[in-house]
């Protein structure tokens, strides 16, 4: 085998070898070397096994598909037990194809929706599933958690159009605002605005352990660990990850898409007891309020609802200034379920479905 390969190389690179034969030989050698390096990387230091999330060519990054482990490290935070399905969504036992007669609720957002600091069965989408199944015991209701730490509404829209809609949701609950105003070298919209052929090529490379290892060595800041640190730029030249105009347009795109698909849309204003951070989010919240008022959308202000529930909710329902604890997730699920019951959202969807 070695002699045959040696003879092939010698003949291909001889002076009288045709240019096409030389090009084919170079290509084959590159492929062989890449395959050897790929196998070696997977055996010795496979970064795919180490990462709870991975780059995504279409929406920057995602949770790793088919994850099932405890103490998942997301940045400086160690999670409880985290499991994901084939699309990287924190849900198990739900197929992409919707069962006949089922009603589906798609929960979208960042780490608040994902459920940072809690186990799979302690996220608000999981508690919402239990509550809705109890309230409407005659119907099969499936709640799907598509939240991902660090996500902005730009990533959410891309994920929805490429993956989320495949689950045929009847109701979408969307909560984005914590990461939109953060500094970055490029906006999220600029980062995802590559030609489809380039995205396709990247999606192939992102499956390679050798490429990801090389990427980590050359540009360590490109690692995605559930926070936007990879997109942070020099403060002097920084832009918002999602400028207010991009945020407003994407909110309207959510509304238009939901209307076109006859999906009920509920926007969430995320809980945020930190006054300084709320001030930074003010312009984005104002844009959300404008879109809600203009389109007469469903909307729940979780900060206000939690404040009314308990004025010191920061000390009792939250793990930190952003993330809910187990009790906080359950309270949020009840707030959403109560709103859906008051607005007869499940009943109206059931009538349309039938």
């Amino acid at each position: 085998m070695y002699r045959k390969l040696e003879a092939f190389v010698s003949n291909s690179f001889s002076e009288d070898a045709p240019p096409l034969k030389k090009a084919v030989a170079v290509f084959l050698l590159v492929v062989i070397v890449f395959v050897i390096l790929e196998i070696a990387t997977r055996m010795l230091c496979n970064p795919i096994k180490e990462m709870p999330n991975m780059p995504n060519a279409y929406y920057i990054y995602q949770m790793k598909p088919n994850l099932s482990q405890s103490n998942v490290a997301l940045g400086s935070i160690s999670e409880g037990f985290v499991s994901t399905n084939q699309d990287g969504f924190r849900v198990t036992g739900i197929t992409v194809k919707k069962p006949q007669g089922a009603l589906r609720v798609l929960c979208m957002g960042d780490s608040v929706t994902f459920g940072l600091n809690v186990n799979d069965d302690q996220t608000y989408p999981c508690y919402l599933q239990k509550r809705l199944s109890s309230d409407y015991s005659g119907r099969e209701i499936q709640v799907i958690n598509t939240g991902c730490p660090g996500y902005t509404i730009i990533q959410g829209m891309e994920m929805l159009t490429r993956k989320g809609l495949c689950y045929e949701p009847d109701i979408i609950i969307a909560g984005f605002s914590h990461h939109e105003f953060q500094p970055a070298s490029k906006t999220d919209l600029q980062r995802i605005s590559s030609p489809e052929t380039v995205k396709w090529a990247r999606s192939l490379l992102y499956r390679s352990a050798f490429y990801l290892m090389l990427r980590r060595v050359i540009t360590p800041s490109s690692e995605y660990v559930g926070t936007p640190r990879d997109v942070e730029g020099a403060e002097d030249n920084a832009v918002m990850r999602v400028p207010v105009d991009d945020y407003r347009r994407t909110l309207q795109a959510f509304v238009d898409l939901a209307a076109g698909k006859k999906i009920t849309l509920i926007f969430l204003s995320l809980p945020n007891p930190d006054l300084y951070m709320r001030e930074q989010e003010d312009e984005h919240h104002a844009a959300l309020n404008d879109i809600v008022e203009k389109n007469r959308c469903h909307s729940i202000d979780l900060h206000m609802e939690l404040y009314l529930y308990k004025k010191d909710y920061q000390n009792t329902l939250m793990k930190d200034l952003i993330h809910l604890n187990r009790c906080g997730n359950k309270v949020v699920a009840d707030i959403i379920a109560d709103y859906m019951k008051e607005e007869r959202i499940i009943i109206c969807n059931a009538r349309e479905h039938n």
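Residues 160 and 166 are 9 Å apart (CA to CA). Residues 2-44 form one domain.
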